[in-house]
């Protein structure tokens, strides 16, 4: 009887396993959520690449500015300084703050360019090529870490120099002087340029290795980045910082690949056949970088329940920085805004590229100089066209994100020791009579006898208030509205360099 009942029980169990049913609609919310996660992962590549595409052109705009408009602005500042006695001094300032910053950038570029002539690229190349593969892999990783650390401190050095040189003189001196800050800035730009040169040289050695083992190991290093970031908890603000860092890293890699191609083409007497030898390796490096970014962001958004729409918000935030920097009351240059937001500092990279181009391409004869002038005019045309298109697209993104009122309704924050309510009567709107804000005029310098005002747009209030907290912007404020979660990502300080920790 026991064996028969066991047999019948076994048959009933097998029958139940073959015929039992279940109803997914009983847990509709769970399965709908899982399906949306799949759709989100499928949308990530498109949304991420749209953000990357926009961010790379923002970096390109800031990078081209160093070669095109900055020399012209330096020339205009020098012309004003030379012809100033002919017109007399209308105020205490010899130059406007923006002109002083342009002069400092130009002088730093020239000094660092001549200092780079004392660095032998060929000796550095053969010194690195003589090292073992494992040692070069370690060196390249160390260089990446050092680049991020130096970039995070470098913009602080440059900002300190600009503010020290343009700070109102009637204030009590609380700094070590303009000259020490200037030498610190020169040392930083020179050191960072050498660091990037070593990176480019290591990449060049990897390209020229016979078995391509070093290049393969360096590309696999990108996939190690997935392990270090995917399994960590990310908020929208942290993901925004990572996206900015990835934009900066990808643009820097493009410039490094350009330097590698220039050096290799010079060694083969600009033979076009050699370019097609390098082209597959270049495509392989770019493709691996794109694949790693897509996989990394796809799983970060999956594990942290972040939708793909967040990348549209990130793009709108970057567009807001561009549009706000074009206003009449803007308090920073756009290239500096990109440096603070993404951690991309164009000065060291520009110094290295100028050094490589001038050593690789020899200019001899009248025709060659004519070609250089035409190339410079082409760069200016590219910069202007890129800026116009970016400005138009940025206005579109800001409008779609419904952030226009943050541009046209600036607020006044209180100066130290004075309540904000007493100063609002002295502020005049910077809008034109037709209600539109100018994006081309220079900031108007206020008279010395007027009370100092710190004029900021609502974007600063919008970008600097920490998550989950509501702080009074003015002492006279009587109403506080709770912000939606969609705006939390823009509450990052626009002067926070990418890579800083956000709790």
Question: How would you portray this structure in words?
Answer:
The chain is mainly α and 503 residues long. It has one domain. It is built from 16 helices and 2 strands. Strands 1-2 form a two-stranded antiparallel ribbon.
Q: Could you give a short description of this structure?
A:
The chain is mainly α and 503 residues long. Helix content is 68%, strand content 1%.
Number of strands: 2
Strand order of the largest sheet: 1-2
Decide which structural class fits the backbone.
mainly alpha
| Elements, N to C (H/E) | HHHHHHHHHHHHHHHEEH
- Rg, rounded, reads 28 Å
Largest beta-sheet details: 2 strands, antiparallel
Mean pLDDT, rounded to whole units? 76
Task: Please indicate the count of domains.
Answer: 1
Beta-strand residue percentage: under 5%
Q: How many DSSP H or I helices?
A: 16
Helicity, in percent? Answer: 55-70%
- How far is the N terminus from the C terminus? 69 Å
Which stretches are poorly predicted, pLDDT < 50 over at least 5 residues? Answer: 411-489, 493-503
Oligomer: single chain
**Large-scale geometry:** globular
Topology:
Elements: H1 2-19, H2 28-67, H3 69-87, H4 97-116, H5 121-129, H6 133-166, H7 178-208, H8 213-230, H9 236-267, H10 272-303, H11 310-325, H12 334-342, H13 346-360, H14 366-400, H15 404-408, E1 411-413, E2 454-456, H16 458-464
Antiparallel strand pairs: 1-2
Helix pairs in contact: 2-9, 2-10, 2-11, 2-12, 2-13, 2-14, 3-4, 4-7, 4-13, 5-7, 6-7, 6-8, 7-8, 7-9, 7-13, 8-10, 9-10, 9-13, 11-12, 11-14
